[in-house]
Amino acid sequence: MKKIFYVLAISFFPLMGKAQFCNLNKNATLVYVNSNRETNETRIDTVTVSNVNRKGDYTWVEQTLCNPAAQKQKSFYEGYNTVKFVYEPNGVTNRILIDEKWGVETMKNLKKELDSYQNSATKSNKDFDEQLANAEHQKGAIAIPLKADAAKGEKIPDGRYSLKMDYMKVSFDLSNGKYEGFEKVTVPAGTFDCLKVSYKIKANVLYLPQTQYITQWYAQGIGLVKEEIANKKKELTQTRLLVAADK
């Protein structure tokens, strides 16, 4: 996995004068209100900055979803309730959508669901873990580079991730990504100057395809402030708004 993200992080400049699009304060909290138009449900999520790890010139940040009720409703690309960022020395904040750890956790959860459905073990845990350890089954990673100097209309690099084990296969493609410029956004937590990004995610989990169009607004020093998700028909299905945040 290190090789993947060293490719993402190729520039080496001082941190002075750079601002990150995430919260670097360990134990800081962010509170969101999530609305799902398809199920007509609204949920309050509390996210904690659970880990801040500085490796050389890079800062790796993990945010963990705290409330148990929300943990049962996993987003298909959110790394099973963990949001990850890598802050580079050139001032770019990479929002990691999918990586090696995500793939391993996905396969383990799929195996549990299949075993439960069949009321038996599809494969011994030892054999399963040995296959997961084989890096040849995994390819790629997907990240959104958040940068303060992004030009409006500039393209976000495409990304692809795939993992295959026997008949179990997952793949994700990010495309049509672009920087939409900077906007003032008002949410329950206040008004923020945000970098707006949009992209398309096409997922295929156990040969069940799904497409989402995602628009997000990120504020420096905080992270995600607003998110809108639309379905394949580009109909708005979900929204997420920041309610409160530790700065």
From TrEMBL:
Q: Does the keyword Signal apply?
A: yes
Sorted keywords for this record are:
Signal
What is the species listed in this Swiss-Prot or TrEMBL entry?
A: Phocaeicola faecium
Q: Does the keyword Signal apply?
A: yes
**Identification of the protein by name:** DUF3108 domain-containing protein
Domain DUF3108, residue spans: 126-242
What InterPro entries does the database record attribute to this sequence? Answer: DUF3108-like
Q: Where is the signal peptide?
A: 1-19
